[in-house]
Amino acid sequence: MAAMPRASQTPADLLPHPLRRDIERAGYYPALVADVIAEAACGEEVVEHLVHQETTFDHDGILRHVTVLVLTPSRLVVGHVDDHVDAAASAGVPRTGRAADRPVDTVVTATSESVPLSSVRGVMLTHVVASAASYRPGSLGGEVTVSLGWGAVNRVDLMPATCDNPDCDADHGYEGTISSDDISFRVSADADGPEAVAQARAFARALSLATGR
């Protein structure tokens, strides 16, 4: 009997199994997300990864989008996939975020960005500890916010400037800070599970070490 022909291999097949598994778990157009990340990774070794799914609500329904962060030996690869619905064509059609429930005119936007590690300016990890009085050593709380900056987006925080004279009512203008804040997201054990929090901390740790060399 002739051997069955092997299915052709796609770029996504070259991604490591843990990354493909997490993309599948997110459940948001996994084949598309995997192809976008594989295209951006260009065959480089995946040192660490993080898949973050977020659900947002608006007056029309529920929307989901997925962000995938991949650390390679030379780059930070960022992939973001979300959808846009033609409001005029889809009037009255609820949006649930599930592919099976979407109208046929839904447009999915998949964007990838490749950032050299030398350009990553900051890795910030904020821990939220709900009950500090009963904190268990080593637990680091059940919620983290990961913020990464590489200069593509800067946030300006302004406030009225003051002087040391409490009786002064002169206009001193404004003072503030400029900080790099290209991507930021929250991961909590209650919403995403303890494993997701541990993965977020592991990714931030790996990226911090890679950019500090």
What are the defining features of this structure?
4 helices; single chain; 213 residues; alpha+beta; disordered N terminus; 9 strands; 4-stranded antiparallel β-sheet
Note down, in words, how this protein is organized.
With 213 residues, the chain is α+β, with helices and mostly antiparallel strands. 21% of the residues lie in helices and 36% in strands. The strands form 3 sheets. The chain has a 4-stranded antiparallel sheet with strand order 1-2-3-4. Strands 5-6-9 form a 3-stranded antiparallel sheet. It has a two-stranded antiparallel sheet with strand order 7-8. Residues 1-6 and 88-100 have low confidence and may be disordered.
Count of discrete alpha- or pi-helical segments spanning 4 or more residues: 4
Strand order of the largest sheet: 1-2-3-4
Radius of gyration of CA atoms, rounded to a whole number: 22 Å
| Low-pLDDT sequence parts | 1-6, 88-100
Determine the structural class based on helices, strands and strand pairing: alpha+beta
Could you give a short account of the major beta sheet? 4 strands, antiparallel
**What separation lies between the terminal Cα atoms?**
56 Å
The rough form would be described as: globular
Mean pLDDT across every amino acid position = 81
Helicity, as a percent range: 10-25%
Please state roughly what percent of the residues sit in beta strands, choosing from under 5%, 5-15%, 15-25%, 25-35%, 35-45% or over 45%: 35-45%
Strand elements, count: 9
Q: Can you write the helix and strand succession as a string? A: HHEEEEEEEEEHH
